[in-house]
Amino acid sequence: MTDPDSTSPAPDPQQPADPQPTDPGRREVLRQGALLTATALGLGGGLTLLTRRPAPAEPAPDPQTAAGRVIRPTGPYDTQEAMTGYRDMTTYNNFYELGLGKDDPARHAGALPTRPWTVVVDGEVKKPVTLDIDTLQSWFPLEDRIYRMRCVEGWSMVMPWFGFPLAALLRRLEPTGAARYVQFTAINAPDKLPGQRPWVLEWPYTEGLRLDEALHPLTLLAVGLEGRSLPAQNGAPLRLVVPWKYGFKGIKAIVRMTLTRTQPQTTWALAAPDEYGFYANVNPAVPHPRWSQATEQRIGESGRRPTLPFNGYGEQVAGLYSGLDLRRNF
Questions:
Q1: 298: domain CATH number?
Q2: Based on the structure, what is the number of domains in the chain?
Q3: What is the pTM of this model?
């Protein structure tokens, strides 16, 4: 999908292989998952350390991309904060297509076919295109970006992506004057993906941005992580990274981008509109209905830290929302 990794509350128990008449409804599944995550993160007080099942082994480096790469914060938007360990980045995340538990995406990563892979860009563009992921990737120089990532569940990481600005792709394909939004669609393969079941979410997973958000230089289409090809559990072969928004906006395994005149519907806003809005800007002053967003648990650290407005990117992006009520438009 994605998350909501970058995503919404994710239940840790194993989901059943097939639906049963006694299964709880979708909202109850989400509620129970949120309670489990909140307990693990100490949002109800007490605990500050995360607990989980033993993680799978760390993926081996990709020799095609890892050799000789040194990841340092060098760009104008990179953070100087310590990066999260690669093992944590690749074994603790939300990707519901691969299961509801935090370590399910890593355990089930082999179920996601990443080649061949076709991406469609259509809608309100002058040059609509359908092309394979390797051709798309060859169009642009790849850039390292070290970004904070804040999950709506109250945990965070610092992640070293590499990819290319979404703006570079959109400008090449020339949005029409009618384009106002970009809708993103993820893979839909319930015959292959163990978590893609109808009682979990409406599939395929969809997300959206306003066109000005999509064109912002911070907005990245990632094809790699820490100098290696993007692992399947993190959304290979192509995912969105929008670091000032909650992680569930970062849709994974993208197969289509459609420019639209009207605001697109998005998966989590459809599933729970009172909890997950279209904008999903990180805002410590607006609590989730079931927990505060004022603090966060940085994975790999003990204790909680204050959450920053716009996840610390306010200087760069606050102007996008001048005059917009960010409590109402959450």
A1: 3.90.420.10
A2: 1
A3: 0.83
